[in-house]
Amino acid sequence: MEALMNVQFFDHAHHKLKIRGLKSPVDVLTFTGHEQLSSPFRYDIEFTSTDKAIEPESVLMQDGAFSLSAPPVQGMPVQVPLRTLHGVITVFPASLVCFKHLSSSQDEARYEVRLEPRMALLTRSRQNAIYQNQTVPQIVEKILRERHQMRGQDFVFNLKSEYPSREQVMQYGEDDLTFVSRLLSEVGIWFRFATDARLKIEVVEFYDDQSGYERGLTLPLRHPSGLFDGETEAVWGLNTAYSVVEKASPLGTTTTAPPQQRCMTEQHDATGGDNTTYGEAYHYADNFLQKGDKEAAESGAFYARIRHERYLNEQAILKGQSTSSLLMPGLEIRVQGDDAPAVFRKGVLIRRYTATGRYGQRGA
Asked: What are the coiled-coil residue ranges (predicted)?
């Protein structure tokens, strides 16, 4: 099961923003962050500074780090950040300006920046290209290394399957992020962002199975009340939504193989006997050259499994709220509490979440 989480922090003076080369003092005022599996994260951060003349050139395209920390406890030393996101202050379309000088007073000025991973910069490269006799991972690595100067420490492939070389792949008018994301999603490869604490960089991790999920976090169910001070990490506001989805997703294709193999169909049932599914979604002219089995990458059975799993993935949508700074896409959490829905007690995977915060405000 997958969950969409809304994260709220309760005192934000302890969250820190650092921008390489910027010597002006920075105090975080508000932030809104969006994170999702297989998508670059985005944090819009508003801050104040006594420097009323910070120039865009000193901020844009600079490395940045945003640290999320637990609320300070009176009488205790300052805690080590629970999580730090590394990225770059990016250039965005005019409607999504990522560096703003918002206002000034006698003592300080307010600014806003957007922090994203370097992979978000792939949207600025739009190409027309043909790739021949390469696998999907090889094409992705070629783009990351040759067009965007990403190095070996910037990304890692943790793949279980072996992917066949494709005779020809075309990129036509797509930006690099759209193109790479399309290729990866076709074969069930997903990615997430991790932090290399030693190098202080973000690392793109690619997976094609569940080995990339983080596990082991359990949080109590605790509804906000007058006695809830926000210092104890908890979850609340849990809700579930279920819907009927396709029972099967057969697919077929016509190839240039020998006559007896030209027309192929394949089907996979991943429901396990679930009687809340119905119907079928037929896909024709899918990109496979042999039937194979469900584990043979890019075979007919493989694509049939991938297609059906995508439908089943929309069968249950789970949502909730939390005060934990540890939440991130790809993390499996369990919720303690007799009042928690059974599916949350069993464990759910966070697919997407939003984090918000405002200085001096209890609850965002």
From this structure: none
pLDDT tens for each residue of 280-315? 888 776 777 777 776 788 888 888 888 888 888 889
Q: What pLDDT does 80 receive?
A: 74
Between 20 and 357, residue with greater pLDDT: 20
Give me the numbers of helices (H) and strands (E) for the chain, helices first please. 4, 21
The answer on pLDDT for 97 being more than 50 is no
In this structure, are residues 210 and 325 in contact, taking their beta carbons and an 8 Å threshold?
A: no
Give the confidence band of 327 by pLDDT, cuts at 50, 70, 90: very high
Q: Any residues with CB less than 8 A from the CB of 115 and at least 6 apart, and which? A: 17, 42, 43, 45, 64, 66, 85, 87, 88, 89, 90
Q: In 69-181, where do the E strands start and end? A: 83-89, 99-104, 109-116, 126-134, 155-158, 166-175
Query: How confident is the prediction for the chain on average, in pLDDT?
Result: 84
Rounded to an integer, what distance in angstroms lies between the CA atom of residue 340 and that of residue 322?
14
Is 65 inside a domain boundary? yes
CA torsion sign, 26 to 101 to 70 to 74? Answer: positive
- CA 1, 297, 139 angle in degrees (round to 5)? 100
Q: In 10 A of CB 248, how many CB atoms?
A: 19
* Identity of the residue numbered 153: Q
Classified as helix, coil or strand, 294 is coil
Written as six digits, the tokens of 183 are: 């290729």
What's 205's domain CATH number? 3.55.50.10
d(CA 3, CA 320): 8
Tokens of 217: 């976090």
Contact of 346 with 336, CB cutoff 8 Å: no
198 and 279 assigned to the same domain = no
End-to-end CA gap in the chain: 27
Q: Report in angstroms the alpha-carbon separations of 342 from 5, 192, 240.
A: 17, 27, 10
Domain, as residue range, for 141: 121-211
- Per-residue pLDDT at 253: 67
- Write down the H helix ranges in 157-299: 176-186
Tell me the CATH number at 30.
2.30.110.50
Question: What is the residue type of 252?
Answer: G
Q: Structural domain tally of the chain?
A: 3
